[in-house]
Amino acid sequence: MIVTIRDIAEKVGVSVTTVSRVLNNRGYLSDGLKKRVHEAMEEMNYQPNEVARSLSRKKSNILGLIIPDISHPFFAQMTKHMEYYAYKHGYKLMLCNSLLDKKKEKEYIDLLRASQVDGIIMGSHTMSVKEYLSIKLPLVTLDRQISESIPYISSDNYRGGSLATQLLLRKNCNKIAYLSGNLQLNMLAKQRHDAFVRQAKGKGVEYIVKQTDMNGFQYKKYENLVRELFQEHPDIDGVFASSDMLALQVVRECRRLGKSVPDQVKVVGYDGIQIGGTEDLTTIAQPIKEMGRLAVQHLLQQIAGEETPLETILPVKLLEKGTT
Amino acid sequence: MIVTIRDIAEKVGVSVTTVSRVLNNRGYLSDGLKKRVHEAMEEMNYQPNEVARSLSRKKSNILGLIIPDISHPFFAQMTKHMEYYAYKHGYKLMLCNSLLDKKKEKEYIDLLRASQVDGIIMGSHTMSVKEYLSIKLPLVTLDRQISESIPYISSDNYRGGSLATQLLLRKNCNKIAYLSGNLQLNMLAKQRHDAFVRQAKGKGVEYIVKQTDMNGFQYKKYENLVRELFQEHPDIDGVFASSDMLALQVVRECRRLGKSVPDQVKVVGYDGIQIGGTEDLTTIAQPIKEMGRLAVQHLLQQIAGEETPLETILPVKLLEKGTT
């Protein structure tokens, strides 16, 4: 229950104007009256109304964050950093999981707009470009380039794809696979795939591409995808998985099939998440913290009416560990 | 930038009252005027002001969630479910990571109150009971019993601790260890420890207890804790870790030391998170989804002024897998 100055006025038995004068320390007021008003405010736990002030300031100091699924470690880790930087600058974060549901994504944008958020960080991308352009709020996207007017933050997906594939080829893999989420989502992550295909073709090495359907992050689906891969292509000896979670499934399936990693099958993941089980995984590490920090920074710059770089592509790093 | 009816009025060149009449379809208004107002609203992307309405309704439809760290999979997974249920009931979730920093926790409560959230779910517990009691907002806590007036959601920590320890004893472990976060945090999770000690004493089996310092979830600290354990007690043959993340570190350290799991060392985790690497882990599974759902439900009941159960203790389940 929100306590307003009207409630305080009723409690003390004075007018709203009088309470307002006490609050703003305006006009002549007896010490006794001031004391009674302050005591009532304390007792009723009155808070200077941030919502009312946000109306007059036209700012809510809330940022909306729309991501596919907070339970995915990549997003959980990035969100942690976003929340940290938002807080540091006096902003709160409203969390929205789209679960890659187009309808939910759209509804969330309307909800966030109605809640007067100052801006949105968009990490879920099932809507059309037209729908994005109609948002008309400060906006930063993650890993998707919507138009030339909406800034995005990404890491160097093409280079990441090249580094991963080159490593598999350097280790003399003869038949390699690329595993990923749905490629039709029109994400910049598709460049990992493009780099993979280009490298494989360039070396004349046989390759396979497999992707999940649109409903991304379900571990059961990852499991099936990996199982299918080895059933259809038992001679695969190198796998580039577009997330560490997917790569862990590959390692697990190899263990189940009695294929030794890295001797018989080499595995490279993507993301560089810090989570149990990934310690020995060769991976392409994205600068998750820096991506989160810059997403917030560029959104705040927009909100302040400052210039914001439209393209931010951060470097990735190959971490060679036990699975290659 | 928030567009108000004042902006619309200026744009169209009419009074605020006129715009308000158009919005509420009150009084006589020419079709031409209505059309001009509606066009201006569309062009300026005016949204019926949820913030202003929340002021008059005294409701914001926002719930605050304060947890230690969203990047910890247990909280990430529970938050996913909370967000789902909040959304289903027309509420948004404001995410706050306390990082177990007492000052930040306190500041967040003030921030949330100032933002007029309708209630708070509290999963981070560094504050004193007195500070909790002064919150004076609908409140539900996770895994901590603050007072007899604040409802909490928990799972059966004592039974979880008993199940885990009994399993190690049944498997004929001779020297067992309990590993956990800091026990002084005064969480209900401490009951896992109590059950462990009681079971071990009951059977007359040698036991060790090791805990991290107050700054919980840092994987590096987990690593050091586990390393220390085996340096100081190389003859440990059973470990009960109070989280799956910690249990994974134990399995990893055993691998590093050339101790086979489960033959030489048996490992039981806690939580039942779904994350790569935990597939073969014997663990005590908490009903994460149900805990998240009930936390939201009991908070919404409080907000609606309905009766809420003060104690909610959900059952846990032993999942026996490859590490015991």
UniProtKB/TrEMBL annotation, chains A, B:
Coiled coil: none annotated. Residues 3-57 form the HTH lacI-type domain. It comes from the Bacteria. Pfam families: LacI, Peripla_BP_1. Signal peptide: none annotated. GO terms for molecular function: DNA binding. Keywords: DNA-binding, Repressor, Transcription, Transcription regulation. This is LacI family DNA-binding transcriptional regulator.
